[in-house]
Amino acid sequence: ETGVTQTPRHLVMGMTNKKSLKCEQHLGHNAMYWYKQSAKKPLELMFVYNFKEQTENNSVPSRFSPECPNSSHLFLHLHTLQPEDSALYLCASSQVVQAYEQYFGPGTRLTVT
Amino acid sequence: AQKVTQAQTEISVVEKEDVTLDCVYETRDTTYYLFWYKQPPSGELVFLIRRNSFDEQNEISGRYSWNFQKSTSSFNFTITASQVVDSAVYFCALRINAGGTSYGKLTFGQGTILTVHP
Q1: Predicted local distance difference test score (pLDDT) of residue B16
Q2: Least Cα separation, residue B39 to chain A (angstroms)
Q3: Backbone phi, then psi, for B29, in 5-degree steps?
Q4: Residue B38 distance to chain A (closest CA, Å)
Q5: Residues of B contacting chain A (CB within 8 angstroms)
Q6: Radius of gyration of chain B (CA)
Q7: pLDDT bracket for residue B101 (50, 70, 90)
Q8: What is the mean pLDDT of residues A82-87?
Q9: In a 3-state reduction of DSSP, which class is residue A19?
């Protein structure tokens, strides 16, 4: 595998379910990001990790819980979501947070019913 | 606060036409970086170009060209002789050269959906 991979690619969950999104980067990067892309809205940064440490939480509700066990893996744990949380969730990585380019995964299309 | 505006929500052209995607940005910082990303139907954002605020030279890469004008705070993207494979959502983004956690934060525009018809 190369680049940034995300699983699952599609997820449908009820509001009472608990699920997790997984992101893995094969680029040797040290910074990882979660973005939310809703219809007709700009991409919204959710979380930033640099060397496994969370450096930014962009006022994200607690029903979204990130986890970064190592520099190659990033998870987004979901529980008690709302229908408005339905979106494309994109993971990205960069060499470090100061690096210019971020490399994106294909995203997980989440539908909350 | 930073802001990026892509006023064109959707553009539709016929193959071989030239098309320009507009991007206007707002920032009070003197050092910043501008980006264009392409998002094909597969979902991932593909990096196209980065420009820093001190480099106003226009750039050409094959059929792609970028026009950066600080005087009008614009960073427009032109595709020459468009092809069906150019159909995608294109995002303009801005990052300021601030310290701390702001280093990684990109501010994106809303994106322009480009459809190129055969």
Answers
A1: 97
A2: 9
A3: -80, 150
A4: 11
A5: 4, 33, 35, 37, 42-47, 50, 91, 95, 100-101, 103-111
A6: 14
A7: low
A8: 94
A9: strand
Cβ–Cβ below 8 Å for A88 and B43: yes
Span A6-38, pLDDT tens digits: 999 999 999 888 999 999 999 999 999 999 999
C-alpha dihedral over A44, A45, A46, A47, to 10 degrees?
A: 170
Euclidean distance between CA atoms A63 and A70, whole angstroms: 22
User: Mind listing the pLDDT tens digit for each residue in B15-72?
Assistant: 999 999 999 999 998 889 999 999 998 888 999 999 989 888 888 889 999 999 999 9
Parallel, antiparallel or unpaired: strands A103-104 and A87-94: antiparallel
For chain B, what is the HEC assignment?
Answer: CCEEECCCCEEEEECCCCEEECCEEECCCCCEEEEEEEECCCCCCEEEEEEECCCCCCEEECCEEEEEEHHHCEEEEEECCCCHHHCEEEEEEEEECCCHHHHHCCEECCCEEEEEEC
Q: How far apart are CA B68 and CA A6, in angstroms?
A: 34
Measured between CA atoms, the residue of chain B closest to residue A91 is B44
